[in-house]
Write a structure and sequence with these properties.
8-stranded mixed sheet, alpha/beta, 38% helix, 341 residues, 12% strand
Length: 341
């Protein structure tokens, strides 16, 4: 087997994850966030300062956002992070939020104004049927109005076209997404995934498969090695434990200290296999230890996630790039066979 190199270029744009805990457990989440998560957060101001200073040293010219999880769940840490990014000369474009923390417009304006004083210019407000299953549209609309009134950059609504999907529902209540999917049929579920431009991994891969979009796993293993995705730094994520997620691949991590530059793949056998042989090689590695793939998956990323889950459960110690550990919990990525033979 000829091993390819993995060289991570300069980090150009990405997000600081303030923790994977979230008020919601959305079905499209790449990173398996939810109320059950306790990882990825800073345990002290010193830890937060350390990771932001490291970003300032490693990628001083990148553009940044702050996300999670739900970053507004720990408002003091969020405020501190915004100020530290400003003080370290980092460009903060926006903070992502699902609006679950909103109570009324007056309090929302006060909070946004407090954050604007330390450097916040814009909030990305999530809007979709996935989010509306947990957050009433009324909260979302209140935040949008408050941001437009308070912040220089206002609200960046992701994605505003889903307003039409939610128009028939009472704004003060969460929606029943199962009822909506059943009423509209699987074609709607598949179109919902396409209109959101979902990366078919994490919980999103499972959602897409349930909508009837799938292919035999053998066909998916013919995909090219994952070199280009793993090298992409245009939308990276780093959590407050200093773990870098390559290529938007939830469940894969590298120490931020090792970036950018050439990665020693002898330390990371999963990445080595993905670079050299792609997911097909990874599946064979897992099958050698008893992995039995499902007949079909929604995508090669969905297959990769299940394969890595098996390898993690079999012996996580052997694979330091499989993490964070809570990503591989049932609540994070449900719907996979978890038997290890």
């Amino acid at each position: 087997m000829r091993t390819q190199q993995l060289t991570i270029p300069a980090l150009s744009g990405g997000g600081l994850v303030l923790g994977y805990r979230c008020s919601a457990q959305c079905r499209h989440c790449l990173y398996g966030c939810g109320p059950h998560r306790s990882d990825g957060k800073p345990n002290s101001s010193e830890e937060l300062q350390k990771v932001i200073k490291l970003l300032a040293n490693k990628a001083p010219h990148a553009s940044y956002h702050i996300g999670g999880g739900e970053p507004f769940l720990n408002f003091p840490i969020l405020k501190e992070a915004i100020g530290l990014m400003r003080d370290n000369g980092l460009q903060l474009d926006y903070v992502e939020t699902n609006s679950s923390w909103v109570k009324n417009k007056e309090e929302t304006v006060d909070r946004l104004r407090e954050l604007s004083q330390v450097g916040l210019r814009c909030v990305l407000v999530s809007l979709s049927p996935f989010h509306a299953e947990y957050v009433p549209l009324e909260k979302t609309l209140t935040l949008i109005a408050a941001a437009q009134e308070t912040l220089a950059g206002g609200a960046f609504v992701w994605m505003s076209h889903f307003m039409n999907d939610l128009a028939a529902f009472p704004k003060e209540k969460v929606i029943d997404l199962d009822d909506l999917l059943q009423r509209e049929g699987k074609a709607y579920g598949a179109s919902l995934a396409a209109r959101y431009s979902l990366i078919p991994a994490g919980r999103a891969g499972r959602f897409i498969k349930i909508q009837g979009v799938s292919r035999p796993w053998q066909a998916l293993t013919k995909s090219s090695p994952c070199s280009a995705r793993l090298r992409d730094t245009s939308h990276f994520h780093v959590d407050c434990e200093g773990l870098y997620v390559p290529g938007l691949c939830g469940g894969l991590v590298l120490p931020l200290e090792e970036l950018p530059g050439e990665i020693d793949l002898d330390k990371y056998p999963i990445l080595k296999m993905l670079i050299s042989e792609g997911v097909g090689g990874l599946v064979q590695l897992a099958k050698d230890s008893g992995f039995v793939p499902d007949d079909e998956y929604s995508s090669v990323c969905d297959l990769c996630t299940h394969t890595r889950l098996h390898l993690f459960l079999e012996n996580e110690v052997c694979y330091p790039e499989l993490g964070p550990k809570q990503f591989y919990e049932e609540a994070s990525i449900p719907g996979f066979n978890r038997l290890v033979k």
